[in-house]
Amino acid sequence: ELNHRKKIGYKEKWHLLHYPKLLVEILVKDIQHYWDLDKYDHLYISYHGIPQSAIKKGDIYLKDCTAQTQAMCQMLNIPSEKITMVFQSKCGLMPWLKPYLNKTLIQAAKDGIKKVLIVTPSFVTDCSETIAEDAIDNKNLFIKTDNGSDLALRL
User: Fold this and answer.
1) pLDDT single digits (tens) 68-85
2) Using CA atoms, how far apart are residues 87 and 99, in angstroms rounded to an integer?
3) Could you tell me the pTM of the whole model?
4) By C-alpha distance, which of 113, 119, 109 is closest to 146?
5) 44: which residues sit within 8 A by CB, 6+ positions away?
């Protein structure tokens, strides 16, 4: 009978899904490989956004994303000023976690950044929505802002 199983809430689930050290090392190795191979101008580590109201109510998601990003940055051989943690997939009118990836890409293109690498470590299953959002929508947004730009997506 399933009723005897403990229900796991949203906060506990995220905590249980932290990347084990080995997965972080694999992700960092891939990021470093592509960074070195294609000489990017900037790295965006993009997480799925959630409403800011959830954080105000005590959700630890932002804290976990920040800790994950810091752990990755410590292992990467990329200058810290070339790495930005961002959030995507905002919906609705209420404020979500910032900075938003799409607005950050527009500003990056205006600032003369030509080649960016986006990684999405929090999208662990069924990334078709993320691929469409980043490889199509955000790429087109970045290119429209500055025609010489190139956006690379690595999941």
Assistant:
1) 899 899 999 999 999 999
2) 6
3) 0.74
4) 109
5) 83, 84, 85, 86, 101, 104, 105, 116, 117, 118, 119
